[in-house]
C-alpha cells in the first residue's frame, strides 16, 4: 500500500469526523459571572437557568461550589450553595449544568446512612443504583389513594391502644427540647411491624446522628432502616434536600408495595431552612418571620406521604414539631396540626417526673382511630380517657389536700385508678408491646376500674347501668 493512499484515507477519516461534529454540535453553554454574595445568597449575571437547575461556581485556585437556582430578577440569578462556600471570590465563573433533582436508589440503601445529596456517610462504599427517582416525587390522584383502614403496630402501648395509628396516616409529634422525642422515635423504629423504616434527621445537632444510630436504633433497628442525615451545620438548601430525599426513599419502597414508616426529625427545622432561603432572596416575612412560601411548601412535603394507590404500599409518617418554650401556638405547629391526621403532644411535666413516654393524653388525638378500631376498643379507650381526665381536672385540689374524700364518686374512683392508668401508660425504651397485648392490657385496666368503682357507686346511691336489650333476630 502506497504512502499517498494511506494519507488520503487518514484525511478522509478526519474529514468524516469533522463533518459528524458539525452535524451534531454540542449544546452551547453560556457562562456567567458571580457579582455579589450576601449571607448565603449568590448573585450571578450573564447566564440563564430555570428554578431548581444546578450551577457550578468555579473560584480561583480550583475551588468549585455546587449551587442551585432559587430565584431570579431582571438580569440576575439568585443561587444558594449546596456545599462549602469558602474560597469563592468576585468574578467567579458560573456555569449552568442542568437539572439535578433526582437520586439513584435500590434495595441496597437498607442499613445505610446517607447525606442530603444521597452520598453514603457510613464508609461502607458506594450504593448500587437500580432506579433514579425524582426528589420532588410524583403526584397521586387523591381519589386513587387507598383509604386508611388498617392499624399499624408501632410497639408503643400508649399509641397502640389510645392513639391508634393507621397505615398511611400522617402524625405530628409535638415536643419541646429534652422531653424524650428521640427515645420515642427509636422505640417505634425498632418495634414497628412496617417493612421498611426511613429516618430523616434534618437540622439536628451533628452528635445526635451517631447517638441515634448506635444508641437508639442499634443493629436490629438499622437492619431494615435507611437514615438520611443533614445536621444543623449543613446549608439550608442541603437540609431541604435531606427532607426531600427521605421522602423520596419512602416513596420508592411504597411503589414496590411495601409498608414504610417515615420518621422525620424535624418538620420545624425544614420550615426554618425554607425561611432562611426565602428571606435571603428578598421574600417578605409574614408570620413571626416566616415568609408565605413556607406555608405552601409544608403541605407539599407532607402530602407525599400516605397510602399509595389501591393495592399498593403505604407510607405512615411521624413528623416531629419543635414547640419552643412548649408553646403550642407557634405558626409552624398550627400549620402542621391543620395538615396532619393527628398529633401526639409530649409533656415536659411528665418527662421531669421520669414518666416515659411522656405523652400528654388529653392534648393528643388520632383522627383516623374511629375508622380503624372496633367498637369495643373505642369504648375501652373512651372509658380510660374519661377516668384520666377526671383526675387531671381535679389534680390541683388533690395535690394540696383540698379535696375531701367522698365528695364526688367519680373523683374518688379516679384517685383510686390513677396509679393503674399511669402504670399502663409507662413503658421502658427496651420493652416492646404488640398491638394485641396493648389492647388486652387496656381491657384489663378498664375492667379493673369498673370492678373497683362498683362499691363506690352503690354507696353513693348510683344505680348500675341497665344491660342493653337483646336483639330480636
Describe the overall structure.
- There is one protein chain.
- With 473 residues, this protein is an alpha/beta fold.
- 39% of the residues lie in helices and 20% in strands.
- The strands form three sheets. Strands 8, 10, 11, 12, 13, 14, 15, 16 and 17 form a nine-stranded mixed beta sheet that branches.
- The radius of gyration is 29 Å and the shape is elongated.
- The termini are far apart.
Shape: elongated
Helix content: 25-40%
**Beta-sheet strand percentage?**
15-25%
Biggest pleated-sheet summary: 9 strands, mixed
Structural class estimated from helices and strands: alpha/beta
C-alpha termini separation: 106 Å
Radius of gyration: 29 Å
